[in-house]
């Protein structure tokens, strides 16, 4: 009986450790878009001089959720996003406009690098 209980405890412990590793890995693999949205939320909160606690209270969320949103650790669903935009007195399209512009700039830089690489490749090929 003692061996069975020890084995069971070992299996439960291993399962818990595996769960913690998966949980930590998810936190590390923060989606870059969620991170950008969180940074935008934090900037608007600072701009309106609203504390985390006040924003959480007005949005009917926990302060921990606001912190996770701002760190990009939690994705903000549409219903909550609309609530946050209303509190921050901003239309959703205005909330996302700078994020779209930032992404468009990143895409232009990538395209420019790709074009330069293709140009170098064609010059090298022509020289052969």
TrEMBL record:
The segment annotated Disordered runs over 107-128
Q: Which InterPro entries match?
A: Cro/C1-type_HTH, Lambda_DNA-bd_dom_sf
**Where does the HTH cro/C1-type domain start and stop, copy by copy?**
41-95
Q: SUPFAM superfamilies this protein is in?
A: lambda repressor-like DNA-binding domains
- CDD domains per the UniProt record, alphabetical: HTH_XRE
What are the recorded GO MF terms, alphabetically? DNA binding
User: Which Gene3D superfamilies would you find in this protein's record?
Assistant: lambda repressor-like DNA-binding domains
Taxonomy, superkingdom: Bacteria
What's the protein called, per UniProt?
HTH cro/C1-type domain-containing protein
């Amino acid at each position: 009986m003692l061996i069975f209980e020890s084995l069971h405890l070992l299996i439960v412990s291993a399962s818990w450790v595996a769960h913690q590793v998966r949980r930590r890995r998810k936190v590390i693999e923060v989606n870059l878009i969620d991170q950008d949205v969180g940074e935008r939320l934090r900037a608007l909160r600072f701009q309106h001089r609203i504390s985390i606690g006040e924003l959480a209270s007005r949005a009917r969320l926990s302060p921990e959720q606001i912190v996770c949103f701002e760190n990009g650790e939690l994705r903000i669903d549409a219903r909550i996003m609309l609530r946050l935009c209303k509190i921050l007195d901003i239309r959703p399209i205005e909330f996302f406009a700078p994020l779209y512009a930032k992404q468009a700039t990143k895409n232009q830089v990538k395209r420019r690098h790709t074009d330069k690489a293709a140009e170098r490749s064609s010059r090298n090929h022509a020289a052969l």
